Structure formats: structure tokens, C-alpha cells
């Protein structure tokens, strides 16, 4: 369901889920904040000309980098980038701010997956990234009165003629698919090594040719994309083993 068709109905009680472009805007603002922090830390450390103070400033900058998003998201619902982009991270279950543990988990998953984490936004009902799905959270418009139609989506509703499997069943099936995909990627790597397409030096010591890097990139990208599809489709009840069940009229 597109936002342009339903934006007149948007109220504080209607969850509006952030589009990818809006979330990228928030990320860009946060990176500007980090860049300014890093530049300020380097300038201060250089100006003081003290190794011990420099180390203290460096450790402090690292701590701020690691805790910035988790702490702000758990306490206020978002970072500076979220706030300036009119966004808020919401816990699916409580409809309030996520806990510090969840906020930290979101940050770690997003950091590990990078941009690949956002692939699932195009196939999930509430436009959730992988780090949202895995922590039962969503990113919504903070103040509907300030939102423009191109900044959000409304939830894609499930047909009333079907019943979704339980969350536990969907989660178990998704984990099963993720395990199979990981095994498939491992087997593909072993086959490439056995056939000589990828050398031992590349696998063991990361001394890879351009072709080898290309082959490994294809395998890694395919693994991430298939994993994202499994999470998104599984949560929507479209995977074998956890499909939505049609209700007979």
C-alpha cells in the first residue's frame, strides 16, 4: 500500500514506516556527527601533545561510537539522525522504545551486514531491514504532522482469507533456511578450492587475485541476498514450511 494513496488518513494512531531514502538521510546525518566528533578528537589530541591524554581521548571516541546509537535509541527512540529525519525506532511488542539490549543488537547486526541489511525492506509488510526483523522492531515516522507522502509507507496488509503461522514457527523455519544457505555457501567454497578456481593462498592468507576476489564476492553477496529473502519471505508467510494458510469460505 503506497503512502501517496493513503497519506490523508495518516494520524498519530496510524504507523507510518520510513522509506529507505529517509533512513539513508538519518544515517548520513549520523555519519556527519561521527566525522565531526573524530575530527574534534584528533584536533584536541594533537593540540595537547600528550600520549596518555591522546589515548584517553581515543578510547572515549571509540566508546561514544559504540554506545551512541544503542543508548540514544533506547532512551529517546532514535539518534540525532533519526530525530532530524523525523524517525523513531519502535519496539513491536511494547510500541515504545526498544530496550538497550535490543538497541545494541540492532547496531551490531546493522554494522556487520552493512547496506545488505536493508534489502529486506522491499519484501516485508512493514518495510523492515534485517536488523529490524531480528530485533522485532520497526522504524516509523516520529511526527505524522511533519511527514510528506514520499517519506513513508503504510503497512501492506495480509489478506483476510489467510492465517499467518505463529512467530515461533516462522522463526524456526527461517533459521533452518539460513542454516541451509550457510551450508550451501560453505560447500561452494570447498568446491571452488577443490577445483582450483580459488587458491589456498586466497582462502588461508587472503592473497587473492582479482578473479578470485570477484568469485568470492559473488558467493558472499548471493549468501546475503538469499538470507535476506529468507527472512523477509519467511516472516510474511511465503516460505515452504511456514506459509500463510488460506481459510476456506
Radius of gyration: 22 Å
E-strand count: 6
Counting helices, strands and paired strands, the structural category is mainly alpha
How many separate structural domains?
2
Number of helices: 9
Question: What are the segments in which pLDDT stays under 50 over at least 5 consecutive residues?
Answer: 1-8
H and E string:
HEHHHEHHEEEHHHE
Strand arrangement, major sheet: 1-4
Mean of residue pLDDT values: 85
Strand content: 5-15%
Note the main sheet.
Answer: 2 strands, antiparallel
Overall 3D geometry? flat
Explain this structure.
The protein starts with a helix and ends with a strand. Helices cover 57% and strands 7% of the residues. It folds into two domains: 3-153, no CATH class; 162-246. The protein has helices at residues 3-6, 20-48, 51-76, 80-84, 100-113, 130-133, 167-195, 200-205, 210-235; strands at 17-18, 87-91, 137-141, 152-153, 162-163, 245-246. A two-stranded antiparallel ribbon has the order 1-4. The protein has a two-stranded antiparallel sheet with strand order 2-3. It has a two-stranded antiparallel ribbon with strand order 5-6. Mean pLDDT is 85; it is low at 1-8. The chain has nine helices and six strands.
Amino acid at each position: 500500500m503506497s503512502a501517496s494513496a493513503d497519506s490523508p488518513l495518516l494520524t498519530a494512531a496510524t504507523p507510518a514506516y520510513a522509506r529507505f531514502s529517509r533512513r539513508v538521510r538519518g544515517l548520513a546525518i549520523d555519519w556527519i556527527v561521527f566525522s565531526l566528533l573524530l575530527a574534534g578528537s584528533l584536533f584536541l589530541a594533537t593540540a595537547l601533545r600528550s600520549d596518555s591524554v591522546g589515548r584517553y581521548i581515543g578510547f572515549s571516541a571509540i566508546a561514544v561510537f559504540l554506545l551512541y546509537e544503542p543508548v540514544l535509541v533506547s532512551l529517546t527512540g532514535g539518534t540525532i539522525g533519526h530525530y532530524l529525519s523525523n524517525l523513531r525506532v519502535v519496539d513491536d511488542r511494547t510500541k515504545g522504545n526498544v530496550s538497550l539490549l535490543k538497541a545494541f543488537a540492532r547496531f551490531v547486526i546493522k554494522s556487520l551486514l552493512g547496506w545488505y541489511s536493508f534489502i529486506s525492506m522491499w519484501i516485508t509488510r512493514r518495510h523492515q531491514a534485517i536488523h529490524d526483523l531480528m530485533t522485532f522492531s520497526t522504524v516509523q515516522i516520529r511526527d505524522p504532522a511533519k511527514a510528506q507522502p514520499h517519506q513513508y509507507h503504510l503497512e501492506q496488509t495480509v489478506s483476510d482469507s489467510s492465517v499467518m503461522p505463529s512467530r515461533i514457527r516462522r522463526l524456526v523455519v527461517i533459521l533452518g533456511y539460513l542454516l541451509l544457505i550457510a551450508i550451501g555457501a560453505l560447500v561452494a567454497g570447498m568446491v571452488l578450492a577443490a577445483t582450483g578456481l580459488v587458491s589456498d593462498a586466497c582462502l588461508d592468507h587472503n592473497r587473492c587475485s582479482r578473479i578470485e576476489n570477484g568469485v568470492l564476492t559473488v558467493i558472499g553477496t548471493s549468501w546475503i541476498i538469499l538470507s535476506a529473502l529468507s527472512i523477509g519471505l519467511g516472516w510474511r508467510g511465503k516460505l515452504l514450511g511456514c506459509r500463510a494458510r488460506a481459510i476456506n469460505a
